[in-house]
Amino acid sequence: MLGRRSRLAAAAVLATGAAVCLALTGSAAASPQQLPSAADWTNEKVNRIIDVGGTITRSTTQFTLRKNESAIASAQGDVAPYYISLSPEEDVHLAYTKVTLTFEGQKAEPVILELERASRPNSTHHVYAVQLPKAVLVGSGERRPVVTFDAMFSHMSSPLPKTIKQSEQMQLLWQGEVGIRSPYATNEGKVRVRSSHPRILSYSPNGPDEATKSGSTLTFGPYSNVEPIALDGKADASTLVAGRVHYQYDQPVISAVEFNRHVEISHWGNNLATEDRIWVRNDGAALKGFFSRVEHQKATYQQKITSHILQILTMHLPPGAKDVYYIDKVGNVSTSHLNASPDAPQLVSAFPVALMQGKTSRLALQPRYPLLGGWNYTFSVGFNMALGEGGWGRRIPDQGLSKVAGDLQGAGSGKHRYVVGVMFITPLTDVAIDNVQTRIVLPEGAVVTQVDIPFEVDSLRHERFTSYLDTIGRPAVVIEKTRVSEQHGQLVYIHYTLSSSAHYRKPLSIAALVFALFGVISTLRRFDGKISK
Q1: Cβ–Cβ contacts within 10 Å for residue 408, how many?
Q2: Do residues 223 and 190 lie in contact, with contact meaning Cβ atoms separated by under 8 Å?
Q3: Which of 45, 166, 262, 525 lies 20 to 30 Å from 343 when distance is taken between CA atoms?
């Protein structure tokens, strides 16, 4: 993983009509040799909520802390480490994390904290470190600090049974830990597992003192006086409680196996062209027997569509997206509906918040055929967006950030600096994305100076992309990442320079080609190819 975890402190400035100021606060990787000391902190209370679903499982854990004297001694500068432990299975399926800090009874905005891997090599335990500010150590009155750990896991539920008939309902099986996993002692805690459907076929542990069921919620615990897990040896079996929930799920279980995004930046066209090539798969129970089109049409007419069959896939495009098209290998697919939203420059830095607020352009796609369990479908979605003048790019003034720059085409001589915000992916709600490749192609002659990515990625490389009427090719930035969720629909900022000579290379090349063709044609017209007698 690339250690480029960063946070944009002033990304919203890109959305204004003035200058751009992007501030990054990076974080170094935690030392893998340092193990947490159980004496540093005590968990007064641990509350965990697990929302089981299709390909995405969400988890929210709140740790109410009490600092010990050794925590102050182990503090380094103005911060003190607090460690969070994940099970091996959770670490393998981990797709997204977010850690915030609040205080009991406090209504202020939570402070976002950086999460860094701190596990030892070849360790059976997976530990992450959070650096708590010094204000937590020196005391905050009677209010105890509360660390909230939000996580999203992909592919932690599987269909059971593996095959069903076309008209049958689907059930999923989730397996994971329902105990308290922490390197610190815990006074009390409980774990809730919630399903979207109240029908839960079975669960374990299921003793009257171990779990209770209320509607679609299972409560495991309460636990009291839980010992810390041993990170340098075998874990205590009484602490790590294995859970199992078999539940009904009334939605398609969809994953995007491949998500390839191609973005081209054009100054002359004042355009940001985007095309997504997506391979989706229904990971639900496979079809037993054969597919009946008659039965499917009958269910459609009676509005009794089997829930595990994918009928509609919703994509949230950026505000102001235009010229939207939807095609597959056969050709254009007309079964789609777009609820377009106007340009909203103030939302440039609001993804994925804008997704949750419904501020995006909603594109409802209907595949060419119903997608049953185990079936695949590949398609492409493309759209254009404005680049300058309220769009997604800005020219950075050469003389200070207070001077308002002109349009993206620039003026005068010398090199000009630009920054463009490109969405890493188009968010797909409740869809796990296995592999993402985003290629951002810049104008010919541009020089990339900086790439700001708000999360860790697997690889970042630079390459040359050649297209029509190119002379030296265009620089391209290729970003790849596995285990992606809708929360990764954030902006990647590309900083680059472009000289005036490089800016006019394309029209001059076209003009030279036209004159060359004109000269060749004129020469051929003057040439007499007849054989004289």
Answers
A1: 24
A2: yes
A3: 262
Domain-by-domain residue ranges, the chain?
Answer: 39-248, 254-510
* Count of positions (residues) in the chain: 533
| Domain 39-248 CATH class label | mainly beta
| Chain centroid, CA 388 distance in Å | 26
Burial class (CB in 10 A: 0-12, 13-18, 19+), 420: buried
129: three-class secondary structure by DSSP: strand
Name the superfamily (CATH) of residues 254-510.
tricorn interacting facor f3 domain (2.60.40.1730)
Q: Cα–Cα distance between 310 and 430 in angstroms, integer?
A: 13
Work out the end-to-end distance of the chain between its first and last CA atoms, rounded to an integer number of angstroms: 78
State whether residue 42 is helix, strand or coil: strand
* Block residue for tokens 């069903």: 164
Q: Parallel, antiparallel, or unpaired for β 432-441 and 474-484?
A: antiparallel
Give, in degrees to the nearest 5, the angle at Cα 83 between 82 and 89.
160
CB atoms within 10 A of CB 312: 12
- pLDDT tier, 3 (very low <50, low <70, confident <90, very high otherwise): very low
CA 251/CA 431 separation, integer angstroms: 11
- Asked, as a colleague might, if the bond just before 161 is cis with ω within 30 of 0, I would say yes
Phi/psi of residue 141, nearest 5 degrees: 70, -140
Confidence of residue 532 (pLDDT cuts 50, 70, 90): low
Count Cα neighbours of 502 within 13 Å in the Cβ-side half-sphere: 20
Q: Do 30 and 485 contact (CB within 8 A), yes or no?
A: no
pLDDT, tens digit, 9 for 90 and up, residues 279-326: 999 999 999 888 888 887 887 777 666 778 898 898 888 888 889 999
Q: What is the pLDDT at residue 75?
A: 64
Burial class (CB in 10 A: 0-12, 13-18, 19+), 68: middle
Residue 506 CB contacts under 8 Å (≥ 6 apart), including other chains: 268, 443, 444, 469
- Name, of 73-77, 122-126, 443-447, the range with top average pLDDT: 443-447
User: If you average pLDDT over every residue of the chain, what do you get?
Assistant: 82
Q: What whole-number distance in Å separates Cα of residue 415 and Cα of residue 398?
A: 9
Whole-number Å distance between alpha carbons of 299 and 189: 46
| Residue 34 in tokens | 């340092």
H or E element, residue 455? none
Q: How far apart are CA 531 and CA 308, in angstroms?
A: 77
C-alpha–C-alpha distance, residues 104 and 65, integer Å = 10
Helix or strand or coil: residue 367? coil
Report how far Cα 45 is from the mean position of its chain's Cα atoms: 30
Strand 286-287, strand 163-164: pairing: parallel
